[in-house]
Amino acid sequence: MKRLTFLFFFVLVLALAVGMPASAQSPNPTPSDDEVNAIARDMYCPVCENTPLDVCPTQACIQWRELIRLKLSEGWTEAQIKQYFVDQYGARVLSAPPAQGFSVLIYIVPPIVLALGVFIVLRAFRSMHKPLESSARETPPATTPDNDYLRRVEEELQKRD
Questions:
Q1: Do 82 and 94 meet the contact criterion of CB atoms below 8 Å apart?
Q2: What is the dihedral sign for C-alpha 132, 134, 138, 144?
Q3: Nearest CA-CA partner of 78 in 61, 62, 55, 95
């Protein structure tokens, strides 16, 4: 009888020890606000112009954040959640447009324009400095008055003498 009681308590303690960590972890833990805001930070409010979803106080944004929380608790990844919102509302909800189609120009044109601007500015600076450098090396030409003018001046001087 003593052994049976000991065995019963041993099995009970063992079952509790094994079962407790499993019961403490729920299959779908509630995501924290930081996890929700990490995704919402890269998205924009559907109602307000240029307001990130993580700081927008509108009711629509509150519902969107709760929807993100729900999707995270269901095991969705950040990419899946963003794609869900893009499918529902279009690419305008993302802070950075996807690099596909016409949006690729957003990533290509600015560096090209910047490089072109630097090239133009450098060429302008070089052209501004070239005349200064060449004029410093050359001696200025001697100024000679017009021969006709010089002849008339000499005639006037001779008349006075």
A1: yes
A2: negative
A3: 95
Model confidence, pTM:
0.49
Q: Cβ distance 65 to 40 under 8 Å?
A: yes
Which tokens belong to 5? 């009681």
Amino acid in the structure at residue 70: L
Domain 27-102 part of CATH 1.10.8.640: yes
Of 104, 109, 102, 84, nearest to 94 by C-alpha is 84
Classify residue 98 by its DSSP letter. Answer: -
What residue segments make up the domains of the chain, in order of their start? 27-102
Structure tokens at 98: 């996807």
- Distance CA(81)–CA(77), nearest Å, equals 6
- Taking only the tens place, the pLDDT of each residue in 57-111 is 888 888 989 999 999 999 999 989 999 988 888 888 888 776 667 667 777 888 9
Instruction: Calculate Rg over the CA atoms of the chain.
Output: 41
- C-alpha 56/C-alpha 44 separation (Å) is 9
